[in-house]
Amino acid sequence: MSAFEDLGVMPEIICAVEELEWVLPTPIQQEAIPLILGGGDVLAAAETGSGKTGAFALPILQITYETINKKAEISVPATTTDNNGEQEQESTTTTKKIEWSTEDRDKDLAINGLLCQSRAKDWAGGRVTYGVSKAGKYYYEATVKDEGLCRVGWSLKKGTRSIGTDKFSWGYGGTGKKSHENKFENFGVGYGLNDVIGCLLDTEAGTITFTKNGEDFGQAYQLDATKLGQVFYPAVLLKNAEMGFNFGQSSTELLKHLPKGGYIPMCQGELEQDQTTVTSTTTTTTTTSAQVSNNNNNNNKKGGGKNQQQQQSQQPQEPRKPLSLIIEPVKELADQTYSAILNFSKYLTSPKIEPVLCLGSDASASKRNIKDLNRNGDIVVGTPGVLDKYIREGVIDVSQIKFFVLDEADQLIRDNLSILNYIYNRLPKQGLQVLFFSATLHSNDVVRFAEQITRQPTWVDLKGKDYIPELIQHTYVTADPEKFEFWKDALDTTSEKHVPFTTDAMHAMDVKSLDRLKTPEQKSLAIKYLKPQLLVRVIRAFKMDQALIFARTRVDCDNLQKYLQAVGGGLGGLESEFSSVVLHGEKQAQVRKQNLEKFKNGDVKYLICTDVASRGIDIQGLPFVINYTLPDTFEDYIHRVGRVGRADRLGVAVSIVGKFEEKVWYHGCRDRGKGCHNTKLVEQKGCAIWYNEPDLFQAISEKVSPVQLNDQFQLDDMEIIRNVGKFSNESSNKINEYQAHTEELKNKVIELANLEETIQRDYLNLPLKFK
Fold first, then answer.
1. Cβ–Cβ contacts within 10 Å for residue 479, how many?
2. Collapsing DSSP states into helix, strand and coil, what is residue 184?
3. Most confident stretch, 75-84, 301-310, 725-734
4. DSSP string over 435-473
């Protein structure tokens, strides 16, 4: 049995993930998948590279597929052809499974398989997918798993989910009272933790009875004759409680107190649904078995003799409306999530799941998006701006959305809160599941927004606030222009070491000379000349052949690439010492994608990028991350350095930290910096600020304790560098341990295989009369 099967993942998806060599679910997947499949809102925080995309994509795919497919809820008679060429119906039907409905439930009722839970202040109820109406005696059990207020019983679909408060439902509560039409009367005794409540329905005599741990309290209700013949569903109502259910369909957990007198487990009855109340959350019509049979009969009466399924396939079907909306902060991450969904849904073919990627970077892309959405768009993945545009214009119909997913939620909320609010307010709230995923979900903004749009969410916090993988070696070098005077080579055109460097022009008007470093502006400009030279020295000292380099602005990225090209001898490929590409928001989407692929494929050594790339880049065994300039927040530092130290591989993060404050661009102007030369400070209505890297680094140092590089720009102990990008010793030991265990079992497995083959051969050779 696959480990993903234990989480409730369907076989078709398991086949796809196994092809991706996913043998075991990661911790975040282990925790989040069952919660999402069970219903309810989930907020999940785990370290970068922990498999968060799979944690939300797998259950979303499964529920989306089951919703549009309705395979388990349709019973279609098989059609055969007799000797005369006439078609006949066989009695074969699809196996029906009793489950708690993800649609016929209150939002605060969380479902995990046959376990129901509510942690809300108000009551939350629900019903199962199938009920019974035929004459018979039916039984199921409910076990209290956690103290709280509970009520179980039977309900018609006409009833509310608050069982026992209307004339269509009959309940028995933990306070020892039975309830019907909001009349509460003493019955039996109270029940609590670990008690097993038996729910008995006799549709022949028209009675409902309840038991506690096998003790029969006698008849609770005599049903009105008008109710008989309708479909009765097991129902539950909880308030800060948890109950598990057994309908007799589990081969591993038997019913504990099956009563005598002809009662059978409910799963053994003829399961059905109330035809007048079956609904679908999509535009696809859900056809019940009775309707299919009726259509077949009508078809035969007309003498058409045609296969009804063939007729149905010829009928035009309306496009399906999106069921899931996944928002990503940047295009690269949206593209990766979209690609992952395509891989996961490889074997979901009947019908085929249709994800749509909405980036809208150019006119042709927008037309493709609209065409895909008009055809069938089951899962929509995109960035905030284009999704906002499409929803406002009515291109995306959000009337059937079941999942609202914020991936890298902290960045989305920080940068696009108004857009998120607008989109959320357009979504249907009944049955909506809201999912937050990120490496950090602890900021006040995230918590506040979660409180606004989620209801009793389950937090999955695997590593706690501000966690950083232990496999990262944090290092730094101080950009001190008073100590390292080689920055002056960038100004001395007569020096053999002169390599020109173009700064951001921040000090073009206020610094005339750098002979002495007295003013803050002079020190700031000296740091700008020093940092690129320190970067080169660090790369050479560590003998880096692959690194991700983060700079604060697109101007910094472009200037740094030009400098590295000059130092390394041109653009070149791997033969150039500093071959590099740039990734930032001003690059066209296609160029960004090409540059990222070049770096991933090893065609260039260095990727220089802004924080637009700090989330979503997944490169196996990436050894080095360099902070050419520090990020604004510690959360962004986590995401940056989280590109290394993944999948149990060692990594090194190097930060180049200015000793003094640096004056940098901070454009608040209308064109966001294009053609702007206003070097006044923001408080003077300009586009510049003083950036205090010493203070930022102090906050980082308190949490990660980085090691300072020596004067040769190395660690005093460089042994770690030999293992960068490789598995940690602990992981290697685990691998060796598994290999030894596998070798130990090898002979036993071969012996069992041979024994199985012998048994099958002997069986085939038995005389016919014994078979």
1. 27
2. strand
3. 725-734
4. EEEES---SHHHHHHHHHH-SSPEEEESS-TT---TTEE
